[in-house]
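Q: Predict the assembly, please.
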Amino acid sequence: MSTITLQNVSYLYSAGTPFEKYALKDINVTIPSGRITGLIGHTGSGKSTLVQLLNGLLRPTEGKILLDGRDIWEDEKKIRDVRFKVGLVMQYPEYQLFEETVRKDVAFGPKNMGLEAPEIEERVKMAAFFCGITEDLLDKSPFELSGGQKRRVAIAGVIAMRPEFLILDEPSAGLDPVGRDTILGGIKKYREETGGSVVIVSHSMEDVAVYCDSLIVMNKGAVYAEGDTREIFSTPEKLYGVGLDVPQITGVTEALRSKGLGLPSDILTVSEARDAILSLAKRRGLL
Amino acid sequence: MMRDITLGQYFPGTSVLHRSDPRMKLILTLIFIVFVFLAKSLWAYVWLFVFTFSLLIVSRLPVKVILKGLKPVLFIIAITVIFNLFLTKGEDLLFECKFIHIYFEGVMFAVYMIIRIVCLILGTSVILTYTTSPVDLTDGIEQLLSPLKKIKIPVHEFAMMMSIALRFIPTLTEETEKIMNAQKARGADLSSGGLIKRAKALIPILIPLFVSSLRRADELATAMECRCYRGGDGRTRMKRLKYSPRDLVLFLVFAAFGTGIILLNIFIPYLVI
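A: Predicted assembly structure:
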C-alpha cells in the first residue's frame, strides 16, 4: 500500500513580491493509508494548497513530499506519474468537463495514462458504477446533465485512473442531501472495494463524522491536530478555538451530558445518539 | 505562470498624474504622441527626452515598474537599431568592413529611433496606463466620446462593454489556471510535443473556459437586469468627472512642451533628419 509523507513542507504564495505569504508552514504529516481521511479547517487554513501539493500541481517552497518514500519532485519529468497515483478532484470539478460524451470525458484520464481501449472501457464502467452514473447517461453530452450529475461525472473522471490516493476537495459543496450521499457513499464504496486511500476536504462536520475514519485539522497553515475521527471530536473546546465545530448531534449529546445524563462522549451520528439514549432510558427503567 | 500577465498596468499612487482627470490625460496622451513624432532636430530630441524623464520623476512610480514596461519593446528597439545602423546610406563613412558600411547618419538615426520609441512607450504609459485605473479610463473615454451619441453611436454601451471586459480579465485568468490544474490532475500534458499536439492539448482547457465565460456573461446580465440596468439613458454616476485647476496647469505644461519641440526644430535645426 502506498504512503504519502510530508517532511517540513512550506509553501509561500507570491514569493519575492511584497505580497508574499506563507500558505503552509513547516508541515510534517503522514496521510493515513487504507482509510478515508477528512481534512478540515477554517477557510484559508491551507487545505486546498495542501491537496494541490500532494499531487504535484504546486511545488513546495521548502521541504519534501514523499510518495512511497521517494521525493515526488526528484524527477520533474515523472510528475505526471505521480498525478496518476494521486488523483485529485478539485473544487467544483463540474466546470472542467469538455468532451462530447460523458464516456469520452471519463476516459480522458485513462487515455492520458496510455492504456489500451478495452482497459479504458472497463475503467470507465468501473468509475461510472462507483459514481452512480447509469448506462444511458454515458452517451449523453456532459453539458446536458444536471449540476449533481456533472459533479459525479467529473469525479468518475479521476476515479477512472484508479489512483492509489483519491483526493477530493469539497466534493459535496453546493449539492442537495441526496446528491451528497450518492457521491460520498460512492467514494466509500470505492475505497472499500479497491483498498486505496481517500482524502476528503470538507467543511461539513456531519459528513466527515459519518464518512471519515481519521481527521487532519488545519489551522493557519499548520497541522493543528490529527487522529481518529472519534478522538478529534471528543475534545470540542479544541475545535471551537480554531473556528470549527463538532457535528450538531455531538453538540446535543454534549449538552445532555453536562446536565448529568450518562451518555458516552464520542457520539457522532444521529443513530448512535438514538441507541445511546434508548439504552440509557432502559437502564433507568423508563422503557 | 498566468499570474505574470498584467493587463492594465495601473500602479496606484498619489502623484499629480494619478490625480488629474482621465479625460485630460487622454487628450494629453494624444498631444504627446503627436509631438514625439514631430521632433526632428537633435535639440528637439534632447528636449523630448528631458520632458519624458521629468514626467517619470513627477509620477513617482518605482523604477522597477517602469523598466518592466520597457521589456516587451526591447526586441523592437533592437531590430530598429540594427536596420538603421547597417542600412542607412549617407556621406560620412565611419566604419567599413567587407560588406558592412556604417555611416554617421545611420548612427544618428539609430539613436533618434531609440529616443523616440523609449519616450513614446514611457511617456504614454506614465501619462495614461500606469497612473489611471481601468475604471477611470473607460469613464474618461465614455465622456470624451459622448458627443458621438448625437449621431446615434452607442458610446455608453461600448464603454460598459469595455469596463466589463477589463473587469473579467483577472477572473478569467484565475479560471484558466483552475481548469489547467484540473486537466493536469487528469494527466493532460500541456508542455510537450509538436505544434499540432500542443494545439490539441489546449482543447480540454478552451472548451470549459468558453462554457464558463458564457455562463458568467449570462449570470452577469441577469444580475444587471435585477438591478434595473437599462443602458445609458438618464443614468447618473457616483463618481463625476470634473476638471480642476491642476488639469489646466498640466495642459499648459504640455502645450509648452509641444511649442518647445516646434521652436527647437525651427530655430536650432542641428542634425535634422
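Chain A has a mean pLDDT of 91. The first helix of chain A runs from residue 47 to 54.
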